[in-house]
Amino acid sequence: MGPTEQTIFEQFSYWRAAIAPLEPLPEAPLTVFTGCGTSYNLSLALAAHANARGRRAIAVPGGEWLSRPENYTPVWGSAHVVALSRSGETTETIAAAEASRAVGAKVTAITCEKASSIAGACDRLVVAETHPAEGIVMTASASLMLLLGLELLGQALDDGVAAAAEALLRRADAELPKFLTGRSHFVFLGGGASYGVALEAALKLQEMSQIFSQGFHPLEYRHGPISLIDEQSAVVLLYSPDTSDAEERLVGELRDKGAIVLGLGGPGDIHLDVPVEAALIGLAVLPSLQLLGERAAQSRHIDTVHPRHLSKVVMLG
Ligand code: F1P
Q1: Which residues contact 68 (CB under 8 A, 6 or more apart)?
Q2: Can you tell me the mean pLDDT for 198-204?
Q3: Strands 260-264 and 233-238
Q4: Is residue 192 one of the residues assigned to a domain?
Q5: Of the given ranges (150-159, 285-294, 304-313), which has the lowest mean pLDDT?
Q6: Residue 48 CB neighbours (<10 A)
Q7: C-alpha span between 235 and 216 (Å, rounded)
Q8: Is the pLDDT of residue 198 over 90?
Q9: Does any ligand 1 atom lie closer than 6 A to the CB of residue 85?
């Protein structure tokens, strides 16, 4: 087992170490979740969770929050900013946190590196230790930062979510050969908080296996992108319990056009149950989606320890 696969399968003891109630984020007119790459995708998921819990929130990429916050909200100066960065060193995220504090905003940072630059650019640092074998591609750290963000929003967590995610990972692994064989076009669909998770799954597959992949809100996929579906297509549908009927109809359409569908929490050519409460679906499916990227890379003999053109930290000169 290589280090990427090892990190994916061995992440759950790090989850268990991070599961503890955290003091919630402070009240603010607006909470802005920001980060880059994976950390931005997690921001999207967390902003959706925050709104669903009655806290007004948006997600903005680090570079955008740094350069033009006024394009995202007129109350940018009074926002509470939550900056996510595994490394704590990403240029735009650190600069965005510093710029936010310069105008009086408070910043909470979520990271896996407590001695990093972001520690000096925030008012509160929230840290989880990640698997030491984790490399350039974010796997366990992504799950851990999502978990910490949920705790900061007051979500109760216990060992049940780790156990469910681990069991799902093993069931998914058994089904992935059927899903991947003969397919070269990959799409991830999810609504609400699962949209950020769908984008993260697409990014993971892209980084790990160099396969072009996309994420969409489920019903958006019918408005144009569906023209790409054929017998080469493989679609993951992250079902939302409240919209599963419409999502199931969409799955029927995709299958009719030749796609194989992996339904997480609902019907598909492959159907895997996600037996957790709705707010924890994204967290529970994330390791399985990370493994999908790794298995796709392995099937193409691509080394995910040294992914093409990527580095562990993106620092702009
Ligand atoms: C985020 C990030 C990752 C990407 C690559 C470089 O960094 O851009 O999304 O996969 O590994 O770093 P961070 O700010 O979370 O450390």
Answers
A1: none
A2: 98
A3: parallel
A4: yes
A5: 304-313
A6: 21
A7: 11
A8: yes
A9: yes
Q: What total of structural domains would you count in the chain? A: 2
Residue of 290, 314, 315 best suited for mutating to test ligand 1, as the one with most atoms within 8 Å of CB: 314
Non-local (6+) Cβ contacts of 92 within 8 A are 36, 61, 62, 63, 66, 316
Residue-wise pLDDT tens digits, 92-137: 999 999 999 999 999 999 999 999 999 999 999 999 999 999 988 8
d(CA 313, CA 104): 27
Residue nearest to atom 5 of ligand 1 (CA): 312
Is the model's pTM score more than 0.90?
yes
266: closest CA among 253, 277, 251, 279?
A: 251
- Distance in Å, CA 115 to ligand 1 centroid: 17
Nearest-10 Cα torsion for 36, 45, 141, 268: -120
Single out the residue of 159, 164, 197 nearest to residue 46, CA to CA.
Answer: 197
Q: Report the Cα 60 to chain-centroid distance in Å.
A: 14
Q: What CATH number should be reported for the domain holding residue 145?
A: 3.40.50.10490
33 and 109 share one domain: yes
Ligand 1 atom having least distance to the Cα of 62: 14
Q: Is the distance from the beta carbon of residue 207 to the nearest atom of ligand 1 less than 6 Å?
A: yes
Nearest to 16 by CA among 113, 131, 138: 131
Please give the Cα distance from 205 to 215 (Å, whole number): 11
Same domain? 143 vs 252: no
Q: pLDDT confidence of 304, banded at 50, 70, 90?
A: confident
In this prediction, residue 193 carries a pLDDT of: 98
Q: What is the pLDDT of residue 306?
A: 82
- DSSP assignment of 42-100: HHHHHHHHHHHTT--EEEEEHHHHHH-GGGT-TTGGG-EEEEEESSS--HHHHHHHHHH
